[in-house]
Amino acid sequence: MAAVTAVLTVVQAYLMVDLICKVFQRNQSFHQLGDEVWFLLCVFLMRSALALFNDRIVAAASNKMRGELRSEVVRKTLENNGTDAADIGATQLALLVSKGINNLDSYFAKFLPQLFIASIVPIVVGACIAWRDWESGGIILLTLPLIPIFGIMIGKFTASSTSKKWQTLGVLSNYFIDLISGLSTLKVYGRDKLQSKRIKEVGDKYRNETMKVLRVSFLSSLALELVATLSVALLAVTIGLRLVHGSMPLSAGLFVLVLAPEVYWPIRQVSAYFHAAADGIATFDQLFAIFEKQPITGTLTPRQIDAIEWSELTIDYPDRTRVTIPSGRAEVGSIHAILGPSGAGKSTLARILLGFLTPTQGRVIVHSDLGAVSFEDLNINQWRELVAWQPQEPKFPIGTVAQILRHADPQASDDELIQTLQSVELNIDDLPHGLLTELGTVRQKLSIGQLRKIALARAILKRAPLLILDEPTASVDDVSETAIAELLRQYSEANSIVILISHRDSLIDYSHSSTLIGSVG
Fold first, then answer.
1. Which single residue of 225, 273, 491, 506 has CA 20 to 30 Å from 236?
2. Residue 331 belongs to what H/E stretch?
3. What order do you get walking across the sheet with 371-374 strand by strand?
4. H helices then E strands: how many in the chain?
């Protein structure tokens, strides 16, 4: 399409110049030139149709590429065992696959197509000008490189400013999501209103970085327009003087003047679209870091678990002190409690056993039908098929309660789902629309206790030989807590291991062994 555009541009200029010369030099009427006028009109329409067709193609291609990028990020994140979310943060990862990839639309739909146009049209048009008048071709050859040179110089400042803007947006996003997550706790201690000052500070910093990017973009547009305008003006003055002295025919002068802007404009647009796509380009480094990371996983695939033991584990976090987890052992048919104050590393142990975190020192040994094998030698995806997990703060995708529960057992009937919910002390009548109650939306009306029960029911429904629970009875009443504790005892006796993270004494009393992390005060 770029090549066809270049040809149509030259044809259009030739027809326009030919018409002007015949009307003003040969005094021919438009009636005599009817065929040429219609031909020129057809060329105009063809260029317009080509531009429209080009816009639709690049828009569709951009949508497809951005969709593929999102799918690839999700696939690689899962393939990398979630280490990407741990490295850059879940909020930053969400920002990357939403706003970050959306910002690539300008890159795919404008910058890349214009790059092809700029690599073909100026060469074709410039060659036609040089063929018609070599002096004008020489001026173009000398002035044309100024636009990319200025564009590259200004582009470096744009890239730096956009990178700072993107980092500030990540800080603002992380801070805001943390604030929303802990808003109830902040309100209890009367600290919620003090956070507005911090949000305003980060918001002001983001606004300042955005304004810096805009200033650079506007200044670069002015500089590039000035270079292009002066280049065309130099051509116009030269042609005017030569026409006055009679050393150049009118047709040649008009042909060069009409085509000259078409030489500079595509390259000028490349620089302009680069600034428009700068936000998207800034995300490529993070995308490539995810794509190029190689997953680390073993090959062994056990079918059953007899016991799990771990030596003293040490984890070094870059933004916090070292976490040390004492050695422990959990055997089939038992409930193993993980005890310790908040922040001591209880959830860290769960992340290690789920394969989302690798300890700096220490080993985890799994006793199974394959014998005693190191955790690093297991195929992590097959291992997770043997594990059920309930997080402390359960999050659900948009879907009904039935759909969420069937993540664990797609073949489960409605009666089985209702019985599982009842086993965790959640009556189906307590749900506004029963199994069709929608989760994952801002309008869901279930309490955090009910959400935890649904997450627990989903974990139970998987019937995995290893069940890891993080505060399963938080925000539930005493009656429900007793029933859940009894359910976990029955679950462990059915040839399974239950690893329990909890502060609740009544739940801990049901455990057969425990690991104390840190100090309980």
1. 273
2. strand 328-331
3. 328-331, 305-310, 364-368, 371-374
4. 21, 13
